[in-house]
Specification:
Blueprint lengths: L8 H9 L12 H17 L6 E5 L5 H7 L4 E6 L2 H14 L4 E5 L2 H7 L4 E7 L8 H11 E12 L3 H14 L16 H10 L2 E12 L4 E5 L5 E8 L2
Helix pairs in contact: 2-3, 5-6, 6-8
Family: Belongs to the methyltransferase superfamily. UbiG/COQ3 family.
Pathway: Cofactor biosynthesis; ubiquinone biosynthesis
Protein name: Ubiquinone biosynthesis O-methyltransferase
Length: 236
């Protein structure tokens, strides 16, 4: 990993170690499988994916990328975690997922190669794992076509988010592996909004993601105090 790549080798190693479990819905990635229909439907409601060229930044094992392809999009998934990408590629072959490809490349490098080539760019649960989130936001803005959509999701940085998303999810409920998130790397909505504005992306919609540990149910709401999603557009 050279110093110019906006990635944390420890973060890549963390997800690579679990790569073989990406498509096990009862594994550490169970929360991603559970929330995926919510985020997919939200995206597809705002911009119907059928026939669009879509890029999923930080795709991991391909859970969101695969589901967007099944909505009729032509999808490219990119990540720097080699093992996770291999799992995504294998799953696409086994499941015969239409119109999907995966590349091991950073968002910044791809933006230099293919600026303005995508109708939709998604970057979900990834910004809190990189050294420079604003650089990824800028790259996403460069990758999307004028008038196109960029979607982000991440975790707020406050006491409630620390209590629920780190202490609760990692140490009490054991929903995800301990150490998955670092509090200092979490991102306030105001900070993400500022990065979007700097990248000339207009924030058009925000949603919160909530969870009930008793029922095991997730839902989207107006509460962005913990997990939240942004829908943004590049000026036409």
């Amino acid at each position: 990993m050279n110093d110019t790549v906006n990635a944390d080798p420890a973060e890549l190693a963390k997800f690579s170690e679990l790569a073989h479990r990406w498509w096990d819905p009862e594994s550490e990635f169970r929360p991603l499988h559970q929330i995926n229909p919510l985020r997919l439907d939200w995206i597809n409601t705002l911009v119907p994916l059928q026939g669009l060229r879509v890029l999923d930044v930080g795709c991991g094992g391909g859970i969101l990328a695969d589901s967007m392809a099944r909505k009729g999009a032509q999808v490219t998934g990119i990540d720097l975690a080699t093992k996770a990408l291999r799992v995504a590629q294998l799953h696409a072959l086994e499941a015969q997922t239409p119109a999907i490809e995966y590349r091991e490349i950073s968002a910044e490098a791809l933006a230099a190669q293919q600026p303005g080539q995508y109708d939709v760019v998604t970057c979900m649960e990834m910004l809190e794992h990189v050294p420079d989130p604003s650089s990824v936001v800028q790259a996403c803005a460069q990758l999307v076509k004028p008038g196109g959509w960029v979607f982000f999701s991440t975790i707020n940085r406050n006491l409630k988010a620390f209590t629920l998303a780190i202490v609760g999810a990692e140490y009490v409920l054991n929903m995800i592996p301990r150490g998955t998130h670092e509090y200092a790397k979490l991102i306030k909505p105001s900070e993400l909004a500022a990065s979007c504005r700097a990248a000339q992306l207009d924030v058009t919609h925000t949603r919160g993601l909530e969870y009930n540990p008793i029922t095991g149910r997730y839902w989207l709401s107006a509460d962005t105090s913990v997990n939240y999603l942004f829908a943004t557009r590049r000026a036409a």
